[in-house]
Amino acid sequence: MDDITIQIARDENIGGKILIEGLPGVGQVGKLVAEHMIDELGAEKIAEITSIYFPPQVTINEEGITELAKNEIYRYETDGRAFLFLVGDFQSNSSEGHYLLSDAYLQLAQELGVQRVYTLGGYGVGHLVEDIRVLGAVNHPDLREEVEAQGVLFTRDEPGSGIIGASGLLLGLGSGYGIEGICLMGETSGYIVDPKSAHAVLQVLSRLIGLVVDETKLEERASEMEALFDKIRDMEEKRSQEELSYIG
Amino acid sequence: MDDITIQIARDENIGGKILIEGLPGVGQVGKLVAEHMIDELGAEKIAEITSIYFPPQVTINEEGITELAKNEIYRYETDGRAFLFLVGDFQSNSSEGHYLLSDAYLQLAQELGVQRVYTLGGYGVGHLVEDIRVLGAVNHPDLREEVEAQGVLFTRDEPGSGIIGASGLLLGLGSGYGIEGICLMGETSGYIVDPKSAHAVLQVLSRLIGLVVDETKLEERASEMEALFDKIRDMEEKRSQEELSYIG
Amino acid sequence: MDDITIQIARDENIGGKILIEGLPGVGQVGKLVAEHMIDELGAEKIAEITSIYFPPQVTINEEGITELAKNEIYRYETDGRAFLFLVGDFQSNSSEGHYLLSDAYLQLAQELGVQRVYTLGGYGVGHLVEDIRVLGAVNHPDLREEVEAQGVLFTRDEPGSGIIGASGLLLGLGSGYGIEGICLMGETSGYIVDPKSAHAVLQVLSRLIGLVVDETKLEERASEMEALFDKIRDMEEKRSQEELSYIG
Amino acid sequence: MDDITIQIARDENIGGKILIEGLPGVGQVGKLVAEHMIDELGAEKIAEITSIYFPPQVTINEEGITELAKNEIYRYETDGRAFLFLVGDFQSNSSEGHYLLSDAYLQLAQELGVQRVYTLGGYGVGHLVEDIRVLGAVNHPDLREEVEAQGVLFTRDEPGSGIIGASGLLLGLGSGYGIEGICLMGETSGYIVDPKSAHAVLQVLSRLIGLVVDETKLEERASEMEALFDKIRDMEEKRSQEELSYIG
To answer: Is residue A84 a contact partner of residue A20, using CB atoms and an 8 Å limit?
Structure first.
């Protein structure tokens, strides 16, 4: 088996110039935005990524069918413009895996014709935020003006000095692939799945990509996601417990 | 040396269409059922699996002979039908190893002609259970009806949202090999080697595979296994202690 | 992607016989000395090293541009003598990675014509030091006399019994490349970025390589570095927090 | 660089039929016995093993020269019989590394003509022992009688159910190389470098290999080794401290 496996629908219409990443992270802001967009737009799944760098377990869906830990790519086309979405429940569980997975995402993106990636995340500030700012980072100086024009802040001291995981590495490694990278981070407490921060990020993203998405269900989705995370935390505890049962 | 080594008896009669997995896990339910079946039926060992993903140690058998950490495959044939059993004392000690070992088991299963794998385990509920339910998961929708017909429950919220280790991955990765996968999980407190939960799982499995196994010694085996685990926990503590002695 | 990637300016004048290493370590002594020299001398960057053994994150520079975690090599030439500097913010985050990165640095050094490497570091004593001693170690007996002549101490019991990370491995692995190795360690409390210890090490190094560097800004640089480290510690805490957000 | 590197004196007389392993472990019993024998017999070093699975650091010898973490093989010949000794300060720092290093030792042993390996260790009982027993394990049933004849005990319940690290794996993996393996374990509290346990093991080993070694300096060597370990523990603490200084 390969360390990373990509199963992709081999079809005529799977390409796209814009990739939007929303994997798990602080406040699940990126995940919430990307999955909300997929649902609202009715994007279609075109690829699945499984990997030995994901947790060694299967999930069980509502029909009782097991599914390997996986991330997914969806596609939505409108007026001749195609958008791809990278979403899922997992990031790597090792440092090396983070690099190798992000590189695999970029290779796939390149094959699909992606020219720009937007990575979405939360910027945890540790307290409730009234007026949520959206912070930005880019992987090429030419991109900054366009992003700032939509109200995104580039501050000297925030976010700390780095972006962790796929949201950062897709920009950092993306340069080597000639793919433009823009990271949008909504302020969030970091303690809950945060629909308000997601709202702020979605507003900015919508203007940047010229695509309007209904936001009325965002709050509802955040509640569902919170419930899901409770279950997942439960599973994680079970995993710790179970690993004690593996002799040796 | 290979990362995973399979030593197999190259013989005419080593194949089988059904593989039953009972590796260590919560309540040792799967291990207890599978090893009980092997003993009662007089199944014969046909393969041994050793791996750098197992703990770096040898066990000493009753004759004072060292044995590498290993898992084993046994075979039992009756009326022209052959059953294979995957048992042993170990699962991987790394996340990546879980995937690679499960994949190696499946490759071997495919070579042996396996068309369906039953993975057996416990579902830890954290308290004593009076009426033990057997929960199920399958890797293809077509399999569910057959399993439900034997009283196995497919509930929306249990087991949490996942199955960890080989019991899960053999189903998840099995799809890619075209191997049907059914996981049976007996409710158990999770604190002891649980013969009652094993009894419940064995009942269901017997009906599913059409093979009756005497159960009178199940309780006795559970006691022996509990004693073995005490020794193993002792060894684990020794390992922690010993590793402190490795300079550097 | 390669496990370690070296991007190097392919130019006529990139070689040098002397390599000075100042990666992060106790009291940031080596880092402070090497970066101070680069700034004062106006050395030019000739290579960048990125790796899956570095933390999986990007930093954001003052212009809002993301940068992969990387180490760098600078070059300064004067009177026909060329000096190379290996600096950066990272060492490996795994034991194996330490070896593989140090070996990659040495391969590159060999290609660049390096005949001798000076590795710089702090020797943490756990308390404030009045008269800072500079301790030494070499990878060949012939080197000792030259180093002792500049006041460097070779004591039987210090530094403990070893040198950890690149500062040690560049000497240990360097022998195999036929590269002379000298390690200079300034005593330091270990609690702060220590300009006084850096001063002591720089004094010795200047005499050894016959290159005078203005030291007036050393204290100032230490303060800046201390502020940077505060930010980095902040980021590290954020990383721990964020990893809790990666499901699975 | 290779994951494991063996530098061996290519000479006519480097072979030997007996290999004696004394790497670090509980009570440093095996290390003490093997290093004592090397010193008393005046055995000569014929090989050095370095590896990325050892700690990423160099030690500094009495002359101030750095040395990579390494294990060593010594050789002693008398009356046409040659004995090899595997000693050093390190075992692997990863589970996989334990397997890969032990396998590399065995490959080398096979090249050198080794037919039998004695692995030496302590069996920690957690309290002071008056009459020290020597416990045994072998990798082939035929070996047991010869070992029992020298007073070595094969008990059903000790040592726990396993032998950890090289002492165990050289036996377990040795079978595949056709190399006979005998493990001798002296009872020890596990809290100190234990010359009394080493004495008991050495007595048995001497009779088994037919080689008398003066024991008067065994106690003295234990004291020196204890002092060395104090230094090493100190270094380990320093390593933890230093790693906090590696940004990222």
So the answer is: yes
